[in-house]
Amino acid sequence: GGMGKTTLAMVLIKRVSHQFGAFCDIIDVRKIYGLHGPLVHKSKFYIKFLATNTIMICNLYNATKSMRSKLCRKRSLLILDNVDHVEQLEKIAVIRGLLGEGSRIFIISRDEHILKLYGVEAVYQVPLLNWANSLQLLCRKAFKFDHIIMSYYEELAHSILHYSNGLPLAL
């Protein structure tokens, strides 16, 4: 946690979502699925993907069938953030081969094993920040400046970075 996976997804969304006929980003899949279960999870996904708020899903099979028939002709972008169980992906039941040509699915997870179990073709490992960038990020979040503003905070800032292994947002 704290590496910037979600932040990277947000940048990706801003840069490329306009290139797709259908776009859906479900931020914090784990929370939605955990609080509401697969039916609400699927409903939120369906509503966002098809840009409608008047959908009522009564069963997962019909929702999946309906969504596939509508999306098979569209170039789609799907971003699922904070996935922590393969079951969450299976319940959404979207397979890239059933989407329009040129469609992309991005799954963001802390657990690479989930991605492999689901059959993800390519995995991008988010690189850790170097020490200078980690310190700058900590200063921005803690002090609202790009640098340490008072010399007596310098030792504290370095201790925090050592403790968090260079991931200040993990705190």
UniProtKB/TrEMBL annotation:
InterPro entries: Disease_R_plants (IPR044974), NB-ARC (IPR002182), P-loop_NTPase (IPR027417). GO terms for biological process: defense response. GO terms for molecular function: ADP binding. Residues 1-144 form the NB-ARC domain. Pfam families: NB-ARC. PANTHER family: ADP-RIBOSYL CYCLASE_CYCLIC ADP-RIBOSE HYDROLASE, LEUCINE-RICH REPEAT-CONTAINING PROTEIN. This is Putative resistance gene analogue protein. The lineage of its organism: Eukaryota, Viridiplantae, Streptophyta, Embryophyta, Tracheophyta.
